[in-house]
Design goal:
heterodimer, A: D-Maltodextrin-Binding Protein, domain 2, D-Maltodextrin-Binding Protein, domain 2, two-stranded parallel ribbon, 10 strands, about 45% helix, B: mainly alpha, MetI-like fold, 11 helices
């Protein structure tokens, strides 16, 4: 019986190949924007080839990604919600947070632009006009980094966005853009995911370029003192690579359809 | 993970009549009931015809309906999505991400269940019922109605099963409904979302409601069948 179990184990190991034996796989929680934009499928193979490991990732909202880290279910986080990230580190769940890159948010909407916000400079004023005109606004409503950003805008305005035109769908960025396209509504999106969904939704950029719309990403290792089982060495090797010259150049080199979507901004530690 | 504390808060939410919870519960119930009410009559008629009549292609049709029983609900969701999307043939109706889209999906999911259960109920009926009714001067429709009345508990079981399937369905509802808060967010899609957000009390409270609905409907069916006597 034991011999058979060993044979099975050996077969499984053989199937997994040499990669499995060389280095421990890394589990990462990240946001839907890095996945939907195609950055991960571009970036991760470059790292995997070098480390001989596999990076398994789950792409969810930032709030949920941070929860996964708090529960010790992943080894490393790649997220964008600075306040929540700092809290995560301050509470002892994460260590060695590093700035990684940024992209930016844009407000997109239908070609007809029923609220008349095209070309406005101030995102707050644009949101205010959408609300005043009773136009449709689709919200992530999933506690993600983008959702937090949007809610912070409404809070700054002192407006409760809830109403018949405000659709909170509790799903990822891609689905939110799809719903906005179908419903001919506006939404706040990261530029990367929007670039991927531009053609299939027919949405157009209405407001862009304001400093308020910058969206910085951080990368954080889960604290091994909190969860001794996590792959801390793997997480640190990954973070070191991402913030190295090679990793940063790889990020800058991600240009789907010729447009750079993420701008590296790792500083020396 | 502590299970007691979220469960305690779940009951608190239910007792307080949390509006988000009530909206999801209301939506689940009315869309499921509407879908079953709309799809049951034609499905039962179709099931009856397939059980009673012989016509070319009848066997193939029965096999097809049975195959539809194990059709993944997400494929039905995809089909309806493609039909109702702005780029789809029915896009001008602007039905995607509305409760109506969910009802359409539910109807397609419930249809094979209702048909197959009706077929087996009718086939299990004593054929002499129909023949006797005909001999006594009943027309075809009248005799068919008599047969259906004889197997009413089997047909009722079909309806209850169809309801149970759609009220707990998540894949199709989230695809064509879009999980929009206060509009198309129902019990199962809300559970999926709250769990992904880590808000377990909401998820547990909704799970309790869903299980109570399923249990309640089946207990009601058992009581009715009990009164009708076991066949």
């Amino acid at each position: 019986m034991q011999a058979r179990a060993l044979t099975v184990l050996a077969m499984v190991a053989a199937l997994l190949g040499p990669g499995a034996a060389a280095a421990r796989d890394l589990k990462m929680a990240t946001t839907t924007s890095t996945d939907n934009s195609g950055l991960l499928t571009y970036l991760l193979p470059k790292y995997e080839a070098q480390c001989g490991c596999k990076v398994r990732y789950t792409a969810v909202g930032t709030g949920n990604a941070i929860k996964l880290g708090e529960n010790g279910d992943v080894d490393v986080l790649m997220v964008h919600a600075r306040a929540a990230e700092d809290k995560f580190v301050a509470e002892g769940y994460g260590v060695n947070r590093r700035d990684l890159m940024h992209n930016d948010f844009v407000i997109v909407g239908p070609h007809a632009d029923p609220a008349g916000i095209r070309g406005m400079k101030d995102p707050l004023a644009a949101l205010k006009r959408i609300k005043e005109k009773g136009a449709i606004f689709v919200s992530r409503g999933d506690d993600s980094g983008t959702n937090k950003k949007e809610l912070a805008f409404w809070k700054d305005l002192g407006i409760d966005p809830k109403g018949p035109g405000y659709l909170a769908i509790g799903q990822g960025m891609g689905q939110t853009l799809t719903v906005a396209g179908e419903k001919r509504g506006y939404t706040l999106t990261d530029r990367a995911t929007y670039a991927t969904y531009k053609d299939r939704t027919g949405l157009e950029i209405m407001v862009e370029g304001a400093p308020k719309l910058l969206n910085p990403y951080g990368v954080i290792a889960v604290n091994p003192k909190k969860y001794p089982g996590v792959n801390y060495d793997g997480a640190m090797a990954f973070i070191d690579w991402l913030t190295s010259e090679a990793g940063q150049q790889a990020i800058a080199g991600f240009r789907p359809k010729g447009v750079q979507l993420f701008f590296p901004d790792a500083k020396k530690p | 993970m502590d299970l007691l504390e979220p469960t305690r808060r779940a009951f608190a939410l239910l007792l307080a009549g949390d509006p988000r919870l009530l909206e999801a519960i209301g939506l689940s119930l009315w869309t499921s009931l509407a879908a079953i009410a709309l799809v049951a009559p034609p499905s039962i008629a179709l099931g009856f015809l397939l059980a009673k009549r012989r016509f070319p292609g009848q066997h193939a049709l029965v096999v097809l309906v049975q195959a539809l029983l194990s059709f993944p609900t997400v494929v039905i969701g995809l089909l309806i999505y493609l039909l109702l999307s702005r780029r789809g043939p029915l896009g001008f109706l602007e039905l995607l991400f509305t409760p109506t889209a969910i009802i359409l999906g539910y109807m397609m999911i419930a249809l094979p269940i209702l048909v197959v259960f009706t077929i087996s109920a009718v086939q299990g009926a004593d054929p002499r019922v129909y023949e006797t009714a005909r001999c006594l001067g009943a027309g075809r429709v009248r005799a068919s109605a008599t047969t259906l009345w004889e197997v009413r508990f089997g047909v009722l079981a079909a309806v209850v099963n169809g309801f149970g399937r759609v009220v707990s369905e998540v894949g199709c509802a989230i695809m064509v409904g879009g999980n929009i808060e206060g509009l198309t967010r129902n019990i199962p899609t809300a559970i999926a979302l709250e769990t992904s957000k880590g808000d377990f009390p909401q998820g547990i409270a909704l799970g309790l409601v869903l299980m109570s609905v399923a249990l309640g409907v089946n207990v009601a069916l058992a009581l009715l069948q009990g009164k009708g006597g076991l066949r």
